[in-house]
Design a protein that fits this description.
metal ion binding; Ribosyl_crysJ1_sf; metal-binding; EC 3.2.2.-; mainly alpha; ADP-ribosylglycohydrolase
Length: about 200
């Protein structure tokens, strides 16, 4: 689920993000739950990059929950994590637990640092939960919302920024089809969901 390059490169097109985020899982994690968790997470990141509020991101996840095939992924996207306590959140490393923990940390906090610390202090597979949280939260808060001293300690930060800029610049030039990528037939996103919707920027 460390897939931020996909939504950065496809942020202009929600449906394309969904399909390419799904494809990014298939090489190493072809399980349906993994594929749909990645597809959903990438799409939520794209929404955040488009300026959606966190509330709008949660709302879109709830709409998406009825359109995925994995019951576990559907349950997470439905938002039931919103009423959970810290002790009810697992960071085992299992993809469904990771998605839930990242969404929970994002929903429970109001800034990047607070959410990041909450995510990684769940322990266990802390680096994965932190990474998955950080992709979504970074899209919501932007670079200026990340503590400057954290960025200052980031190895090769200039290279990372340059790569992100290059990915951003190719947005709108990519496409994918089930003819060229037949493995994507495993998912059937509802195109209507990715059209006009009330999730615009705040």
């Amino acid at each position: 689920m460390r897939l931020a390059p996909v939504p950065i490169a496809t942020y202009l097109d929600l449906e394309l993000t969904y399909k390419m985020s799904a494809a990014s899982s298939i090489t190493t994690h072809p399980n349906l739950g993994c594929i749909e968790a990645c597809a959903a997470h990438g799409t939520l990141i794209t929404g955040a990059l488009q300026g959606w509020t966190k509330e709008a991101t949660i709302s879109f996840g709830q709409e998406l929950s009825s359109r995925v095939n994995s019951a576990e992924v559907s349950a997470v996207l439905s938002g039931y994590y919103l009423d959970k306590t810290r002790d009810q959140i697992s960071s085992s490393g299992y993809v469904v637990h990771t998605l839930e923990a990242a969404l929970w940390a994002s929903a429970c906090t109001d800034d990047f640092k607070e959410g990041a610390l909450l995510a990684v202090n769940l322990a266990d597979d802390a680096d994965t939960v932190g990474a998955v949280y950080g992709q979504l939260a970074g899209a919501h808060y932007g670079e200026t919302g990340i503590p400057s001293d954290w960025i200052g300690h980031l190895d090769q930060s200039a290279m990372i920024t340059a790569m992100a800029d290059q990915l951003h610049d190719i947005a709108g030039t990519l496409s994918v089809s089930t003819e060229s990528s037949p493995h994507l037939n495993i998912i059937q996103p509802d195109s209507a969901l990715f059209g006009a919707h009330p999730h615009g920027s705040a």
